UniProtKB/TrEMBL annotation, chains A, B:
<dbReference type="Pfam" id="PF12680">
    <property type="entry name" value="SnoaL_2"/>
</dbReference>
<protein>
    <submittedName>
        <fullName>Ketosteroid isomerase-related protein</fullName>
    </submittedName>
</protein>
<feature type="domain" description="SnoaL-like">
    <location>
        <begin position="12"/>
        <end position="105"/>
    </location>
</feature>
<dbReference type="InterPro" id="IPR032710">
    <property type="entry name" value="NTF2-like_dom_sf"/>
</dbReference>
<dbReference type="GO" id="GO:0016853">
    <property type="term" value="F:isomerase activity"/>
</dbReference>
<dbReference type="InterPro" id="IPR037401">
    <property type="entry name" value="SnoaL-like"/>
</dbReference>
<keyword id="KW-0413">Isomerase</keyword>
Length: 127, 127
């Protein structure tokens, strides 16, 4: 399997194993010194153990599904459909892998809904 | 050039030509029936002409730089550093290309800063 295929498989597994609360399986994908960042809140989590705990403690009956995974060498991006009950939010996740195929860096964006600014109604439709 | 390399080059050019206000060059990358969506505001723009006009009319002295481009077959994701004056925001853009290498679909996310929720201070550091 080439590097991109391995990266694509790992990114998909990262979403699937998190969704299944397969903590051992998720741990197997992560480098021990993985760094996880949420730039919107300027939060950073260092290390596999802390990141697993963060996921295990995350409140709510959350569910994740990969809408798209794009892999390129040791980089991947995952477009995720996240749901808690009736609430839905998309996430955008950027992954970096090490030489040996473990995830070393995760950057997570959680874009929130906003009202469209005025002045472009002549160009846009709403959905 | 293989499909992924062509997609990667097109995604990078999409950012660069928009930054340069090279409207003819940007137009050359877009399918005539390109669809541009901003899921956060549920806005959609249909067609190359309207999308070019949207970019041309976009207010402010904005600047775009690709922080990372990930390409995979006919899909790409671009992680963009966007600035207007002193203000900075990251964007996450998902691209789909046609058989002949033109951009047919663009999905744009503009995640905004938020305060970290309480209850995870024991796991996170701030940056």
């Amino acid at each position: 399997m080439d590097e991109t295929s391995r990266t694509r498989q790992t990114a998909q597994a990262y979403v699937d194993r998190t969704e299944r609360r397969d903590w051992q399986g998720l741990s197997d994908l992560l480098a021990e010194d993985v760094v996880y960042e949420m730039p919107q809140s300027r939060e950073r989590i260092r290390g596999r153990a802390a990141l697993l705990q963060f996921n295990q403690e995350y409140p709510g009956d959350w569910h994740l599904q990969a809408r798209r995974v794009v892999a390129d060498g040791r980089h991947a991006a995952a477009w995720i459909d996240a749901r808690v009950g009736d609430e839905h939010q998309d996430a955008n996740v950027w992954l970096e892998l090490s030489d040996d195929g473990l995830i070393t860096r995760i950057t997570d964006y959680w874009p929130e809904p906003y009202d469209p600014p005025a002045g472009r109604e002549h160009l846009v439709e709403r959905f």
